[in-house]
Each structure stands twice: as structure tokens, then as C-alpha cells.
Design a protein that fits this description.
409 residues, alpha/beta, Rossmann fold, 3 domains, six-stranded mixed sheet, four-stranded parallel sheet, binds pyridoxal-5'-phosphate
């Protein structure tokens, strides 16, 4: 850890801002959504920030996203809740990628709790601690709940979590084991979110739903800063992002903007590609229709649970980032996702999660349709460890008491 306890580290938050109206709000007090019911964005005094840190100073620090602390909202070091975060590696797919070092996976499965939800929840829980909260609640498809439970337990807070009843058992159990209290609900994530929202008054819990408080975006923003730093303060040509609530896509877009404003990167932006599953593709549908908002997707289904999000409060922020970047939105079906997961595992030795595999198959489809080229430097996000998901069974046994036919091997 680079952080010394008991110390205030410089933070540069100036105010919060409604992502829709631009209305300003005081920092350092509790906020949920803006009065318009839209996400609040954290704004910084970027000039002061850029005077207090430079690229060389950063290069001296330990890995993990807390190295970007000047870009983050936590004011007091003692409120930082950490679990040994690492800088996640960039792994090129040199056997399956079109050209050497052109298709790179950012492997977020190496983070605490095995997914990139750790970034957002570490920040949200640290800020919850700073603001004096003691009971957090959220709806989850699995990974967010696990990250919230882990960081909340680490901070000595209560965590109450609601997930759809068909959430993989491994996720339900990891939440409970890491100190959360988890309920299976006969509905989807938006139904779970309703329970959290409606229970606020009766329980006093704080709603940590995706984009419903301002700080998870700040945690996910570190994916963009980290990527730019790893590429020598350059951005790639294209980013394929598996999009559920869109926190990561919105967060990275914000990161690139802040980095350009302080002169750390130029005006080039990656084309941002929002990847969804054909069984739940509200953003793709809205994108194709040229709309700013994405209405609820009925009967959402996909085995890529992390992107089974029928409705997103940050829909317009996702769509704007995709449009401004010159990117696009694309839906891929579950068979293609599973086939990609299995093929990348077998041929590259890289076990992607289904959502990560969705980005790979989306890349192949976009290559085939000419939306990206083999010369593009492409970054795919593997958002969680593939080990949390069901894998194909193996039916091969060997009886050591019988003569072994070595010609079979
Ligand atoms: C949450 C999650 C996503 C979607 O991330 P957002 O930033 O909320 O869109 C994708 N994949 C996995 C594995 C997730 O847990």
C-alpha cells in the first residue's frame, strides 16, 4: 500500500453535478440520484489536481487503483477500505487475435472478489464510511453484491443484498460468506432494485445500486486511467465493453475527459463499443433506433448474468459516450458467447467469463462486418474471473487397477 494511515491526502472534489441538467450540489454530504432521478457526477478542481501529481510521481507508486487517489473523492486516508487491489494485466490474444498485440484483454478477474465490481464498490464503501453510513443495500446479479459484501465487512458495515432467484449459486454463497445478508427474489435485478428503493425509509439502509450514488462511477473510472497509463498514456483504437448498467463505460469516458483536460492524453478517443446479449439488449435497440433513452427490455435472458440489466438509469450517458466516440452498440447471442468462451480457453489458455467472451465474439463479428479492422488496437474487458461460472462437464475416467493403454494418450 502506498497510503499512510491517519493522514488526509489531497483530494480535489469541487462539487457534484446532475448528469442531465448540470445542476450543482455540495460534496461531502449524502447524495443518491439527482432531483431529476439521474446519476450525479463528481467534479474536480483539475487545475489544482494537475499541480499536485504528475506521471513520474505516479510511476513510483505501488499498483492498484488507489494509486490514482488524487483523481478520487475519498478525503481521509483512514476511510480507504482496501483488500489488496492490483493493477490488472493486459493480456494479448496472440493466437486468436487478427494480428500480434492488436487484440488485448484487460483481465479484471484478478481484482478482489474476482471482478471489476471491486473498483466501484471499494470507492462507494469508502465514501459510505467517510459519510458515516453503517447499513448498505443493493440489488445485484452477483458480482456487485459480492464486492459490496466484502468491502462492507472490511469496513465493519452491514450489507443487505437482493438478487434474482436464478443468480448462480456461487455468487449467492460468496455474498453470504463475505458477511452480506443475501435474499433470492423471484424477479430480475430491476425488481430487486425496487425493494431496495422502497425499503429505504423503513430500514435506514443506503442504496448502493448502480449509478444511484455518485461514487461507483469514480471507482470504475480508474479502469480508464489505468489503461491509458499501461499504454504509455495513449488510448487504444477501440474498446469493447460488456454493458449492463454501463458504469464502466461511463466511468472510462469520464476518465479520458479528465486526463485530456490536464494534458495527460491528447484528444484521441477510443471508439467505445457497448456489447450486450441478444436476450437483453436495451442499449443496442435504442442505439439502432437513434434514441437517447433505452426503455425496459421485457423477458430479459442471457447466461452472461452481469449484462442481464433490462433498464439502466445511465442509458443516455452510455449512448452519448458511444456516439461521441464514433463507436457502436452490438448484441451477440448466448451460443456465440459460449462458443467464444470455450474456444479462447482451449486455444489461448485464457478462461474468460461469459461477459468477457461476449466482447471477444462481438469483436470477431465487428471484424467480419468491417466495423473494426485488423490494424486497430482493440481492448476487450474480461470483467470477472471465468472460474465463477459453470463450465462444460468432463467425462473421462481412468481405472488405475486395469492395464493402461498408453497408446490412447
Ligand atoms: C457488472 C458486470 C458487468 C456490467 O458492468 P457495468 O459497468 O455495470 O455495465 C459485466 N460483466 C460482469 C461480470 C459484471 O459483473
Amino acid at each position: 500500500m502506498t497510503i499512510n494511515s491517519g493522514q488526509e491526502f489531497p483530494t480535489f472534489v469541487s462539487h457534484l453535478e446532475c448528469s442531465m441538467s448540470g445542476e450543482r450540489f455540495e460534496p461531502d454530504t449524502l447524495h443518491g440520484l439527482s432531483p431529476l432521478g439521474r446519476p450525479l457526477l463528481v467534479r474536480y478542481d483539475l487545475e489544482a489536481l494537475s499541480k499536485s501529481v504528475d506521471k513520474d510521481m505516479l510511476a513510483q507508486r505501488d499498483g492498484g487503483f488507489w494509486r490514482y487517489r488524487e483523481f478520487l473523492p475519498v478525503r481521509r486516508t483512514e476511510n480507504v477500505v482496501d483488500l489488496g487491489e492490483v493493477t490488472t494485466p493486459l493480456v494479448p490474444l496472440n493466437r486468436l487475435g487478427a494480428k500480434r498485440d492488436r487484440v488485448i484483454v484487460k483481465d479484471e478477474g484478478r481484482l478482489p472478489t474476482g471482478s471489476f465490481k471491486a473498483r466501484g464498490l471499494a470507492l462507494a464503501v469508502s465514501m459510505a464510511k467517510e459519510l458515516g453510513l453503517d447499513h448498505l443495500a443493493m440489488p445485484t446479479n452477483g458480482n456487485a453484491g459480492a464486492a459490496m459484501a466484502a468491502y462492507a465487512s472490511r469496513a465493519g458495515m452491514r450489507a443487505t443484498i437482493f438478487c434474482p432467484e436464478d443468480t448462480p449459486d456461487v455468487n449467492v454463497r460468496e455474498i453470504e460468506l463475505q458477511g452480506g445478508t443475501v435474499y433470492r427474489v423471484n424477479g430480475l435485478i430491476n425488481d430487486c432494485g425496487k425493494i431496495v428503493g422502497e425499503g429505504k425509509e423503513a430500514t435506514g439502509w443506503f442504496d448502493l445500486s448502480t449509478l444511484k450514488e455518485p461514487y461507483r462511477i469514480e471507482g470504475k473510472k480508474t479502469m480508464g486511467i489505468e489503461l491509458a497509463e499501461q499504454l504509455g498514456w495513449e488510448v487504444p483504437d477501440v474498446i469493447f465493453y460488456p454493458t449492463g448498467g454501463g458504469t464502466g463505460l461511463i466511468g472510462m469516458w469520464k476518465a479520458f475527459d479528465e486526463l485530456e483536460r490536464i494534458g495527460w492524453i491528447g484528444s484521441k478517443r477510443p471508439r467505445m463499443v457497448a456489447v450486450q446479449a441478444t436476450g437483453c439488449a436495451p442499449i443496442v435497440r435504442a442505439w439502432e433506433a437513434g434514441e437517447e433513452h433505452a426503455p425496459l427490455w421485457e423477458n430479459a435472458h442471457t447466461f452472461a448474468a452481469g449484462i442481464r440489466v433490462p433498464v439502466a438509469v445511465g442509458d443516455f450517458l452510455i449512448i452519448r459516450a458511444v456516439r461521441e466516440s464514433g463507436g457502436f452498440a452490438i448484441a451477440v447471442d448466448d451460443d456465440a458467447i459460449e462458443e467464444a468462451r470455450n474456444r479462447v480457453s482451449r486455444e489461448e489458455g485464457f478462461l474468460l467469463c461469459p461477459e468477457g467472451a461476449a466482447t471477444f465474439t462481438a469483436y470477431e463479428q465487428a471484424l467480419a462486418s468491417g466495423q473494426v479492422s485488423t490494424d486497430d488496437q482493440v481492448v476487450l474487458y474480461n470483467c470477472a474471473t471465468g472460474l465463477k461460472y459453470p463450465m462444460p462437464p468432463v467425462a473421462r475416467d481412468l481405472d488405475r487397477h486395469q492395464p493402461i493403454d498408453y497408446s490412447q494418450f
